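**User:** Everyone, produce a chain:

**Assistant:**
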Amino acid sequence: MKEITLQIKFTEYEATAQLPEKDNILIMKARDAAKNAYAPYSGFRVGAAVLLGNGKIVTGNNQENAAYPSGLCAERTAMFYASAQYPNVPIIAIAVSTLNHSATPSDIAKPCGACRQVMAEYEDLAGKPIRILLDSTNKIFALNGIDSLLPLRFKKEDVK
């Protein structure tokens, strides 16, 4: 038997002003998208903004439904839309931001497992890590690649 420890590395920013300009723009787009989320049941509004290899930015937000779990998360909404509108254009980065009336300002956006796995799929298609920005009102985490959020993930070669 052998015990193994997994560690992740990320950068924490205290304000959008500390971010590189492209990241700042992406966070602002995600925050704007969160304002238009359809979240009448949870009140937990999430926005996502995806930067594509062609320079386009695509946004999405969570869409709830009374027939839970028929809704869709902001991350998958944005990534699926990006893939549908710009097939074969790689995703370079994704920003995720939440507006939640019951959360504290330090609560950071955290993608669900399904969204993490979809990010992994698009990262594999791109052949390089996707920059992931997780936003709250007073801090932002920047991660380089999905393995930081999903270290023991399914990979295309695992599914035969």
